[in-house]
Every structure is written in C-alpha cells, then in structure tokens.
Amino acid sequence: MLERFRNRRRNREIVDDLYAAIVEEARREVLYTELGLPDTVMGRFEALSVHVFLFLARCRDDTMLKPVAQDLVDRFMTDIEDSIREIGIGDPSVPKRMRKLAGMFYERVNAYDPGLQGADAEDLAAALRRFALQDGAPDAAPALAAYILTRKSDWDAVPTASILAGKLAEEA
What we know:
The chain has one domain: Tetracycline Repressor, domain 2, CATH 1.10.357. It is globular and about 40 Å long. By secondary structure, the protein is an all-alpha fold. It contains eight helices and no strands. Mean pLDDT is 90; it is low at 1-6.
C-alpha cells in the first residue's frame, strides 16, 4: 500500500514537472511580441491551451503516455480554476466559468487538430485566426501556425522515457 502512495506521488511530481515546462513554453515572449497572441488573461489562456494541445498531440498515439496526458489535462484544469479564483471570481460562479473555459479548450482542440495532423499550415492558421488570434493580430496566424508545427516536430522527437521522467526536452 505504501508503494502505491509513493507511485502516485511520483506520478504527480512528473505531471507537475511536465506542466511547469508547458507553462514556461506558453510564457515565451515571442508568442506575444511576434506571433500575435494578445498579452492579456485570455491571450495567456490561448498560449497555454495551444501548448497543452501540442502535448496531447504528442501523447496521442503512445499508449504509455495516455495516462500522463489525462493527468496533465486535469492539472491544466486545476490551474485554470485556481487562476479564476485568484482574479476574484466567486465560488458560486466558478463551476459555470470552468465549464465555459473547458468547452473553449476542447473547441480549440477540435479546430486545430486537422491542421496539425495534416501538417497543413493554412488550415491551422485559419483556425488560429478564428480562435487564438481573434483579439490579437490575425495577420500573425501563418507565423503562429509555423511555430506550432515546429514545436510539434520538436516534441515528437522527445523520447517517451524522457516524458515519463517529467522532461519535455530530449535528454542531452
């Protein structure tokens, strides 16, 4: 029984490490200065959503990573909930806001996925204009699409063992 607790704790540490790496990626200045995302609360949500989506795409066909992917989505939703509480949304409104934000995230996943899976920069750019860049710089959509396709390629190259060790970069 103690071993199960240790494994659960270690899994949580791995997910926390992966999530921290994703948050770091989503905070890259270039996303807001050159790739059109607005530097606002919703712009930050868009950046984080894109990177969580990329992580899910990396894990999609790897059966060893499916549980990690689900745990990471749970961690993402917990972070979003904590954030809306921090900005002053009261307890009675939190579930309604969470349903809306979760719906927005999955709507984006469904919109971005065809372009990402087909490596179709134009399709991905069109979806980004419609969602992530509607309050930002829609002209930056092709550059943001290229960034996303490059990050996907980078993350696809990360070995499963590295991800299971809580690392989102290939071990040097």
